[in-house]
Amino acid sequence: MANKQRYDNGYDSNASTDTPGEHSAPILERTDPTALQKHVAFFDRDNDNILWPSDIYNGFRELGFGIIFSIGSLLIPLFFSYPTRLAYSYFPDPYFRIYINSMHKAKHGSDTGIYDSDGHLRPALFDELFAKFDKSGKGSLDVDELWMLLSNNRAAADPAGWSFAFMEWWTTWLLLQKDGRVWKEDLRQCYDGSLFWRIQEDRTKEKGWRQGYGWRDFVRSMYKEGTWKEWTLR
Fold first, then answer.
1. Which of 56, 138, 180, 216 has an alpha carbon within 20 to 30 A of 225's alpha carbon?
2. At 31, is the pLDDT very low, low, confident or very high (cuts 50, 70, 90)?
3. Rounded Cα distance, 42 and 59, in Å
4. For residue 110, how many other CB atoms are within 10 A of its CB?
């Protein structure tokens, strides 16, 4: 992955402002990104303000996801390319590219609302999420509390939104869980994108990224403990 001059969230300060046809997007200067744009900036492999499907796949691999799961991540450009394309054309992008500068157009229903309609972060709603669903008061959310959050946010007649929200939270838990819980500061960094740079850096160190849950964890836990929730036995 090419080195980037980046802000504290990894957003590049030397991005091109060409037209979409030239693999770039001119709506917003990348010197003033929204939280949602920062959230996806890690995946912008060549810093052209466009996410190709290969960018998504390679980004998931860099975060430690396996080949099969990373192939599954290609559902992201499949479903979210067209909404971001609408900032420029009614015709779908033939390469299923995602346009970062219009990322806010890919917001879906039945979400937390922590990103506003322009993609800015709403800190008060983020804190309210934990005040409402963190029943243990530990500053984190376990699987049951995440399920309550999903159920609470489901809007009527919005199966697409329910599905997208489930996939997002499932991926978040697989990437972040520690002792079976998603911790508040980790989730905050996930929303603003800085978490992904942190994981990438940790994976280059001897100890690596020590959080998350994969198929090896599942097999080991089932074999040794007879349950996939091994942290409940500690």
1. 138
2. low
3. 7
4. 20
